[in-house]
Amino acid sequence: MFGGLGMWELVVIFGIVFLIFGATRIPEIAKSLGSAIKEFKKSSKEISSDEEEVAKSDSDKKKS
């Protein structure tokens, strides 16, 4: 299923997370995790576009 984890393993993991953090903090944690993932993806796209620009400018210099 998810990286080799079955349904029961996920249920146990979610149960433990629920017991540790409680019902009120889980939405806050999920929101923070979502924001972090979004920021990471944005940064990796910026790095990729920067690398493409450098490669393009290098190939343009070689042609000249």
TrEMBL record:
Tagged with keyword Cell membrane: yes
Any one GO molecular-function label of the UniProt entry: protein transmembrane transporter activity
Example GO biological process: protein transport by the Tat complex
Region annotated Disordered, chain positions: 44-64
Keywords: Cell membrane, Membrane, Protein transport, Translocation, Transmembrane, Transmembrane helix, Transport
GO cellular component: a single term: TAT protein transport complex
Recorded topology in the membrane: Single-pass membrane protein
Residue ranges of the TM segments: 6-24
Pfam families assigned: TatA_B_E (PF02416)
Keyword Signal attributed: no
Entry's localization field: Cell membrane
PANTHER family the UniProt entry points to: SEC-INDEPENDENT PROTEIN TRANSLOCASE PROTEIN TATA (PTHR42982:SF1)
Free-text function comment from the UniProt entry: Part of the twin-arginine translocation (Tat) system that transports large folded proteins containing a characteristic twin-arginine motif in their signal peptide across membranes. TatA could form the protein-conducting channel of the Tat system.
Record's subunit section: Forms a complex with TatC.
Similarity comment text for this entry: Belongs to the TatA/E family.
Protein name according to UniProt: Sec-independent protein translocase protein TatA
Annotated source species: Aerophobetes bacterium
Gene designation: tatA
